[in-house]
Amino acid sequence: xxxxxxxxxxxxxxxxxxxxxxxxxxxxxxxxxxxxxxxxxxxxxxxxxxxxxxxxxxxxxxxxxxxxxxxxxxxxxxxxxxxxxxxxxxxxxxxxxxxxxxxxxxxxxxxxxxxxxxxxxxxxxxxxxxxxxxxxxxxxxxxxxxxxxxxxxxxxxxxxxxxxxxxxxxxxxxxxxxxxxxxxxxxxxxxxxxxxxxxxxxxxxxxxxxxxxxxxxxxxxxxxxxxxxxxxxxxxxxxxxxxxxxxxxxxxxxxxxxxxxxxxxxxxxxxxxxxxxxxxxxxxxxxxxxxxxxxxxxxxxxxxxxxxxxxxxxxxxxxxxxxxxxxxxxxxxxxxxxxxxxxxxxxxxxxxxxxxxxxxxxxxxxxxxxxxxxxxxxxxxxxxxxxxxxxxxxxxxxxxxxxxxxxxxxxxxxxxxxxxxxxxxxxxxxxxxxxxxxxxxxxxx
Length: 445
Known about the structure:
The protein has 445 residues and is of the alpha+beta class. 26% of the residues lie in helices and 35% in strands.
C-alpha cells in the first residue's frame, strides 16, 4: 500500500497540504485538557479547605471552648512485692543414663516405662552364667597358689636350717626365698582376680542409683549389650526438680544482696495451662555472666511432690526479693508516652487538665507503680486523654461509663520485662525508667 505524502495524527490520515492546520488543532485540544485538570484540582482543594474549616468550628474539637468529658480514677497507696519476672525451664535435679558395665545378654527388665522407682530398686539383669564361672575359676586359682605358697614357705625354712648347718649353699637359700615371695605375690593377684570377678557378677544386676521417673526403655530383653556402650534407660529425678532462668547483670547485685541476707528467697513457677502456683527457693547463682547476652543464670529448687513441674517445660517465674510499703499506684491506662517521657493528666481543683511528668515502675495487673510525680488520692484521667491539652476544661463522666478494661502503652509488659522497682535504672527490659519531664505545650496524647 502506497503511503507517500501522508502521515497519521490521532489515528486519522491527513494530506501533507493540511499538516500545519492539523497540528494547530491538536495543540488547542491539548491545552483544553490541561485546563480541565487544573480546574478539577482547584475545586478539590476548595472542598478540603471548607471541610477543614468546618472541623475547626466543631464545638467537640479538643481545643474547643466546651469542657471535655473524661473518666478519672484516684491514685492509691499499696504494699507491693519487689520481684523479678521471667520465663524459665524445668530441669530434673538429676538425670542418669544407665549403661551396662559388662557385656552379655539382657535377660530381664524389671520396670515399666514411666514408672517411679526408688533408689536401689532392681531394674535390669544381664546373664550371669559366664561371670559365675569366672568367679569359680578365680577361687580355684587362689586355692592352688595358696598351696604352692605354703610349700615354698616350708622349703625356705628348710633351706635356712641347712644353711645354718653349712650343708646347703647360699644360692639355694636365695632361690627358696625368691620362690616363696613369688608365690605370695601370686596369691595376692588371685585374691584381686576374685574381687574383679565378683564385681563383674554384681554388675549383672543393675539397680536404680536415684529415686525418680523412668523413661522409655532403650533395650529389650534378649538384646546383646556391650559394656559401657549400650544405653538401657534414663532416670530423671523430679522430686525435687529445678527451674533455671536468667536475670540481667543490672539486676544481679540486687539478687545477690537479698540472697546473702540469710532468708530464703521465694520463687514461684506458674504453668500457662495450670492455675496452681508452685513455690520453691532460690539455691543457685551462676559464676559467670554471659558475654553475648549480659545475663546470668540462676536456679530454684521445688519439692514438686505432686509432679506438676516436668523436665523440659517452660514456666513463668516470679522471684520475690522483698516487700515495699506505701507505694503509689495508678491505673496503667492513665499513663501516656510523650516526647520527653511518660506523663499523666491530673484533674485539678478547678476542673482543668494538668500535665504531670511521672516515673513508672513495675506493673501489677491493671495498675502500675508510680515512683515519682504523683501523690496518693490525686485524680488521674484514664479515658479521653486524646482530646485534652494542658489547661483544658474537663468534666468527669459517671463511673459506670468508664471503660472496664484497657491499658495505655505503659501497661504493656511481659514477664521478661518486669523488674523490681527498687532498682534505680537498668536495661531495656526494666519496667519504668528515669525521671521524665512534662510534654511541651499542646502535646497531644
